[in-house]
Design goal:
seven-stranded mixed sheet; disordered N terminus; about 450 residues
Length: about 450
């Protein structure tokens, strides 16, 4: 497959429908293997890193060239003057128990590598002392842990929280404290209607997740859509953003139905029957975790995959594909990160992560890593660990990240990240993600005046 310069080194292809792709696959015309040209794979988001509970990063946590201006790690940092900030306490909140624990392990491993990056680099005039706490996949626990690291451990910076409900709870706490919170959750409200001056978000939000995928599916897959997700913060947010994108881009899409069962539903038979008996041509599933896995397996058993094209926001992740196996093949997904991307300083990150955890990183590790690094760059730029000064310094500060040069917008503190649209394909007895097209960062975010954010 030809390589397009928009891919930053990954090979893209022209869009094709799932049915045409499966016909192509069954005819033997597409023989691919993991890591082959045209396909990229999101590796194990849960990681296998042996559970380094020391929380202090690792030897090899920062690879060669760490922190030097040559590799871009000094972007947004000013070492002139040699300010001595000292040690900065950072609370790292991840789900180490509960349904999101496998994803939390990956986010923690990324954060540990971010701490090592800063502490082993000459580009920073301080060291980070991390304090790791378990959110237990629970909003109230997440908020309590945020209070604990700030009030008892003296943290002026809090990073993490993976689930949208937990992220919203921590952001609400941070908004009333002298603290900077770097969020790893995706609900658009965090940098939208519920934004505050102390909260920044490196993770791409629900609007960014749906930007390219919505446009592609409307153009290539069908015009009659059904929306399905559990009735919680992320699903609700994603539904709103799908509808907003359809209206903003004047897409020829008719939403013919919605289903929003409770979080943790075990039997999706009623919802699957509703979808099957509708006119839907496209089923949009902005869903993650066990709810995504259980729904997809039941949909496959009921034959729903043969009736509609399926698009999602987390199907690209290895933790999803590993659980789904062949069920994922032929579906389409937003792609927020892939270890094979030749963007920013991703190669340095991949080498360091693989050296420490003996596996390539996935999306949640990527988020943990950059939450720590971008906070550190704000501290360095401000020349102080004072949260107010760091918050001001972070606004519109250009930084080289894994996904290329980006910044937190001053208007809502959202990172302006690119996203990709991909298809899940069979590859060497497993699955891989084949990239279709890229949407540049400025085209993924909502205009400032539409966010509802007021700080």
């Amino acid at each position: 497959m030809p390589t397009d310069e928009r891919t930053n080194g990954a090979a893209f292809r022209d869009g094709t429908t799932r049915r045409r792709a499966l016909q192509y696959l069954s005819g033997g015309a597409l023989a691919v293997s993991l890591g082959a040209a045209g396909c990229v794979q999101e590796t194990d988001d849960g990681g296998d890193g042996g559970g380094d509970d020391g929380g202090d990063g690792s030897d090899g946590g920062a690879s060669d060239g760490d922190g030097s201006d040559e590799d871009g790690s000094g972007d947004g940092s000013s070492t002139d003057g040699g300010t001595d900030i000292g040690t900065v306490t950072v609370g790292v909140l991840v789900p180490e128990s509960g349904p999101s624990a496998p994803l939390g392990q990956a986010q923690r491993q990324g954060a540990q590598l971010g701490v090592a990056f800063v502490n082993e680099s000459d580009a920073f005039d301080f060291e980070i002392e991390p304090v790791y706490e378990d959110t237990q996949t629970d909003p109230s626990t997440g908020r309590q842990q945020a209070e604990k690291v700030v009030e008892e451990d003296g943290a002026q910076f809090v990073v993490g929280a993976l689930e949208s409900s937990v992220g919203l709870a921590v952001a609400d706490f941070a908004g009333g404290e002298d603290v900077v919170y770097m969020s790893g959750a995706a609900a658009v409200e965090i940098t939208g209607e519920e934004c505050n001056a102390n909260t920044f978000r490196y993770e791409s939000n629900a609007a960014q997740h749906m930007a390219g995928l919505t446009d592609f599916a409307a153009r290539e897959l069908g015009t009659k859509w059904w929306l399905h997700s559990t009735d919680e913060a992320y699903g609700q947010s994603a539904f709103e953003q799908i509808e907003r994108r359809i209206e903003a881009q004047s897409l020829d899409v008719d939403i013919v139905g919605r289903t929003q069962p409770d979080f943790g539903t075990e039997n999706y038979g009623p919802q699957i029957s509703q979808i099957s008996n509708s006119e839907a041509e496209v089923l949009a599933i902005p869903e993650t975790g066990a709810d995504l896995i259980n729904f997809m397996k039941q949909a496959e058993s009921a034959g729903l995959k043969d009736e509609v094209e399926i698009i999602g926001t987390a199907l690209f992740a290895q933790v999803s594909r590993a659980a789904l196996g062949a069920t994922a093949i032929g579906t389409y997904s937003s792609v927020l990160y892939n270890h094979q991307l030749e963007t920013g300083d991703n190669r340095q990150f991949v080498d360091a992560y693989a050296g420490e955890y003996d596996a390539p990183p996935g999306n949640f590790a990527r988020v943990g890593y950059e939450l720590v690094r971008t906070a550190a760059r704000g501290i360095q730029e401000a020349g102080t660990s004072g949260p107010g000064e760091v918050s001001s310094a972070l606004e519109d500060l250009p930084m080289t990240t894994i996904l290329g040069e980006t910044a937190y917008r001053a208007c809502d503190h959202q990172a302006v990240n690119p996203v990709w649209t991909g298809q899940i394909v069979e590859a060497d007895g497993g699955t891989a993600v084949e990239l279709i097209e890229k949407v540049e960062g400025p085209d993924t975010v909502r205009p400032c005046e539409e966010t509802g954010c007021s700080m």
